[in-house]
Design brief:
Layout (H helix, E strand, L loop, with lengths): L15 H17 L2 H9 L2 H20 L22 E4 L46 E5 L5 E5 L3 E4 L1 E8 L11 E4 L2 E4 L11 E5 L2 E5 L4 E2 L7 E2 L26 E5 L2 E5 L4 E4 L3 E4 L13 E3 L2 E3 L12 E5 L2 E5 L4 E4 L3 E4 L3 H4 L8 E6 L2 E6 L3 E4 L3 E4 L12 E3 L2 E3 L11 E5 L2 E5 L4 E4 L3 E4 L12 E3 L2 E3 L11 E5 L2 E5 L4 E4 L3 E4 L3 H4 L9 E6 L5 E6 L4 E4 L3 E4 L13 E3 L2 E3 L3 E2 L2 E2 L6 E5 L2 E5 L4 E4 L3 E4 L4 E3 L5
Antiparallel strand pairs: 1-2, 2-3, 4-5, 6-7, 8-9, 10-11, 12-13, 14-15, 16-17, 18-19, 20-21, 22-23, 24-25, 26-27, 28-29, 30-31, 32-33, 34-35, 36-37, 38-39, 40-41, 42-43, 44-45, 46-47, 47-50, 48-49
Helix pairs in contact: 1-3
Length: about 625
Amino acid sequence: MVVGGAGRGLVAGHGGRQAQSRGSRRRHRLFSTPPHLTSRAHTDSGMRVLAVSVILLAGGAWGQLHSSFSSAPLLPIAPIAVYPQERVVAQGPVVSTFSQSSRPSFASSSRPSFGSSSRPSFGGTGNPCQPTPCGPNTRCEVNRNSIAQCRCIEDYVPDGNTINGCKPQCVSDGDCPDDHRCVLQKCKPVCGPGACGIGADCRSRNHNAVCQCPSGYRGNAQVSCTRDIPEIRVAPPAPPLDPCLPNPCGSNADCRVRGDRPVCTCPIGYEGDPLTNCVRGECIENRDCPGHRVCQRLRCIDPCQERVCGEGSECTVRNHQPICSCPRGFVGDPFTRCRRFDPQELCHPSPCGTNTNCRVKNDRAVCSCIENYIGNPLSGCTPECVRDSDCSHNMACQNNICVNPCVDACGEGAYCDVKNSRAVCSCPEYYQGDPYRGCYAECTAHDDCPSYQACIKLQCVDPCDGSCGVGADCKVEDHKPICSCPKGYTGHPFESCRPFTREDLCNPNPCGERADCTPGFDRNNNDRPVCTCPKYYVGNPLVACQLGQCKDNNDCPENQACHGYMCQNPCVTEVGSVCGDLADCHVKNHLPVCSCPQGYSGNPLTECRIGRSGFALGRSKK
């Protein structure tokens, strides 16, 4: 008999002397581990324990070797699944051992004798599960080989192995992870639904839920958290003081306020110390100077004195702009250097190579190959080709030049391939026509086809072919296939449609936790599930609904009102105070009372001004 842990079984095997030897070596572990066998081991002597082990081994081997024995002795195993109830033969807790009267008899001097007419008896019933060999909280089953199997009952786990018995998943919180607690002997998350109040954040600590309101919210995190909307009242500003009055700056200076300090500057076109005196400059811009001068740093100067032109060049001022130019008979860059020009020196002698032309352009020698020659004109030009073989495989030799034979060879819209330096024309796929004259497509856009067809692969075809799912309807609108399930059917029209039933709307319930689902209709009068929170509940019905704080004002403190089943300050809304500008708001009997502060008058629902005081009772201005 081999002892296994959780997930492995105790197998009563066969194998003659080899099985008897293995059973003898492991008999101590067999009778010391299972609790229901411990009492027998304590009462019997060592020799009796050895004898029981030999009996079990011999009985198991005999049962496996002789098909006439109706059941094998024992195969307790750890549970691997929950089996149907009709397979359960016996269920723990049961503590049982073989009685002395049920042990088979063996001769002391030789191995047991087994025959077809003599069978050892285990409990007298032939059922290995009666009495049950399994521990507490287990059930005993008999497999197809008539071997007993011990399995844990539902929601229990092996206590080492099923011979010892099975135990609950947990007994105390310490048996669970830190973010779980033991509830009804099961580990469940501490931050599950309802652990904290509405709008509160939940985190786990030592198997307990720690609730707190998020930033910007306040309230009892165990009940609910509401957005913190402070009431802000700004006092009327004091009349500002102008630090530039009286003007602390110098003569002709400008004074401007920066922060609460005066800053003195000279105006545009003026210079000097702005704290004492600013004087007008000679100029502000070029048009304040004569046409042959420019304005720089409030002074009219000659720009040619700044050496803006190059060596040997002439400088003249026109309309306040310096113009540099080379003198007559000179060439070059007037901004760098001018030199005397001699056109003959550019191409004589020619700086170009053989088979080239030299000409002067923009005072420079320009080299170019002669007609139908190629190469570097500075070193020499040669003919590009003499025969077609001198060109690449997709080119042809014409007038000593390799040209593309496809140029102007094929008709409009045709493809051109070069084979043996000759153009071969063909129409593209789905095109029609003579490739040497012109190829055309039946269509290139949907508008080229009737409205009930679409342009696919340059052909006008029915777009509904293969577009919709099984059982779906298809119609073409403006060249596009429109797939839809027939009336009374539901499903994905691009996959399949099936008959629609009202049970499809709310079964299973598509709404959130504690939300109600009722069949309804959309704007197009189509069946749709409608999710709503029950009365006195708040939340997103698509996610979860929770019981609100109040049902009416009487459920709230006197300084709060019940709005949307939540206790809120009636003086403040998400858009601000319900009272007018500069007005005070107090809550009385769950209603906001607006009044002008002392020394102010006006309608407190709209605006308070300095004057007679007054008050008004109301909710909010619209």
